[in-house]
Amino acid sequence: MTTKQIAHLKSIAHDLKPVLQIGKYGVHQNLIDDILIQLDAHELIKVSLLKNSDVDEVELKSLLITNGVTVVSKIGRILILYRYSKKLTKHIEF
How does 74-89 read in b/e, with b if 16+ C-beta sit within 10 Å? Predict the structure, then answer.
C-alpha cells in the first residue's frame, strides 16, 4: 500500500469504534476467524487490545498478514485492519 492509501484508510477509521477486543485469552483460531468475518463485512475495522492481554503483537501481525489482512496502523492499543472483501458491493475507494 502507498502512504496515500494508508493515510486515506486512517482518516476513514478515525470515527470507527473497535468491533473486537483481544483479552486475557490471547490469540486463538476463533479470534482470527472473527476478525476475518468482520473484515468480510466491513473491509476496515478497529481491534482493541485490552490491558490484561498478553498478546505478542509481532505474532498477531504475522498471523493476520498470512490471512491476507493489512495492518494499517497501531495507535496505542488499537489496531486498524484492512482487507478487500469480495462480498461487498460498495468498496473503499482509493
Answer: eeebebbbbbebeeee
Q: How far are the Cα atoms of 8, 18, 41, 50, 59 from residue 5, in angstroms, in the given order?
A: 5, 21, 20, 28, 25
How far apart are the C-alpha atoms of 32 and 83, rounded to whole Å? 13
Which homologous superfamily does the CATH classification assign to the domain defined by 3-82?
Answer: YhbY-like (3.30.110.60)
Task: Calculate Rg over the CA atoms of the chain.
Answer: 13
- Please report the pLDDT score of residue 18 as a whole number: 97
CA distance 23 to 68: 23
Q: What is the pLDDT of residues 28-56, one digit of tens each?
A: 999 999 999 999 999 999 999 999 888 88
Domain-wise residue ranges, the chain: 3-82
Alpha-carbon gap, residue 47 to 55, rounded angstroms:
13
